[in-house]
Amino acid sequence: VLSHNLCTVLNVPHDPVALEEHFRDDDEGPVSNQGYMPYLNKFILEKVQGNFDKVEFNRMCWTLCAKKNLSKSPLQISDEDAFKVWVIFNFLSEDKYPLIIVPEEIEYLLKKLTEAMGAGWQQEQFDHYKIALNTSREGLSAWELIDLIGSGHFSKGMDRQTVSMAINEVFNELILDVLKQGYMLKKGHKRKNWTERWFVLKPNIISYYVSEDLKDKKGDIILDGNCCVEALPDKDGKKCLFLIKCLDKSFEISASDKKKKQEWIQAIQTTVSLLRAGSPPPHKEARQKRKELRQKLLAEQEELERQMKELQTANENKQKELETVRKQLEAAAARAAEEEKKRLQTQVELQDRFSLELEREKMVRQKMEEQVAQKSSELEQYLQRVRELEEMYKQLQEALEVEKQARQDEETVRKLQARLLEEESAKRAELEKWHLQQQQTIQMTEAEKQELENQRMIKERALQVAMQQLEQLELERKEALEQYEEVKKKLETAANNTKSWKDKVAHHEGLIRLIEPGSKNPHLITNWGPAAFTEAELEQRQKSWKGKKSTSE
């Protein structure tokens, strides 16, 4: 039944044999949409020539689907109006399944309906509705569009008849390609009488009927690029006249007023201009432009999203690079802190080492001072003993004093020379040590050099002082050598003087004797070096002195 009705509406011959042959081996029950589509495409749609009534075809499709999908809630529009809205939806919907009408086309349709109803367009109200719609979906289905118009949300204050007339006007314009319609008077070609007719202007034809119900058609005016329209002066008691000239005949028409006359002339001229240019009707051209604009905006939006994603990816990569650089900087800072810590630790160790060395030098200096004090004490003791001997040996005082003084001076010069040599070697070692420390200090980092600059200056000053002391010691050593030479000469003179006293003191059993090579017995060691006699000789002399002292008493 469906195939037969489709063939009837589309003016295609029905072939029952082909239908039976196509579904002969199908024993699986009812045919699905996918199962019926191959037959529909091959045996029906491919044979369509375009000479069928599209309104009747739409009405058949409406009959098939309306009962199942149309809302059961009461609407403010009739079923006929709902059918016309459904057909308008099919014209304005997007070319993809499932079919939806986007908000831009919804706004276009509602504006056309509002204009047809003679009401004002509420843009703010539609903007609120559009925002709510965009948050949930991309558009509306046919049945949702019917519910929207039938609910009266955008036609408040309008009665059903006004809404129905507006839907019919928009349906005629968009679906039936009716550019203009209305009652006018037409002059007959034979009887030359004037008769009122209902004129309908379409893209390539003007049809005129007895009334606006379009049931009794009286004729057509075929339009092409060669047609023209021009205004006529009033005549025969008729006003608002204009003439439509075609190739085969012309038509004189009288409008109801000047406004209608101008509107019809303008509409016909626009239609002829479109025919000459080969352009589609204005509403179809406008729809195509809106569609192309949406596609362009969609492409631009997709390109923008792609660029945003690329920028986001690049930003994420930059963030990763920055994070890597930050980690590297943190690692470098940690290494720098560790190196700074090591440098400070090294500096502290060097300071501790220098402090220990200074303490050691202070201790050595203190020991040397103690030794000097001890030597001074021993010298005092020795001088006391010398004074006792001077009392005992008054006669030999000058000779012994000169000899002893010469020896003392010799020993002093020798020890002084040795001490100066030791101090000189110590100072040289210290200088070399400071020189090595200066070399190590120079090799340190620039930061350490800045911090140790003051210490280096102190050591340089100490080095200068040491150099001055070394030069002073060198001068003292030279003076000591000169003194040694003088003492040596005095010693030789004293030795000569003591020879004359040898015979005089022979009876005293050698209280004093000439300086001769000593015995092999161990000698006494005094603060000034080896003594002139041994321990045994000293004891023997002491016994002799005591015996003589007791004899004299």
Automatic annotation (TrEMBL):
Domain of life: Eukaryota
Keywords: Cell membrane, Cell projection, Coiled coil, Cytoplasm, DNA-binding, Membrane, Nucleus, Phosphoprotein
InterPro entries attached to this UniProt entry: EF-hand_SWAP70_N (IPR057836), PH-like_dom_sf (IPR011993), PH_domain (IPR001849), PH_SWAP70 (IPR057837)
Domain PH: residue ranges: 177-273
GO MF term (any one): DNA binding
Cellular location(s): Cell membrane; Cell projection, Lamellipodium; Cytoplasm; Nucleus
Major localisation: membrane
CDD domains assigned: PH_SWAP-70
Record note on quaternary structure: The SWAP complex consists of NPM1, NCL, PARP1 and SWAP70.
PANTHER family for the chain: SWAP-70 RECOMBINASE, SWITCH-ASSOCIATED PROTEIN 70
Name of the protein in question: Switch-associated protein 70
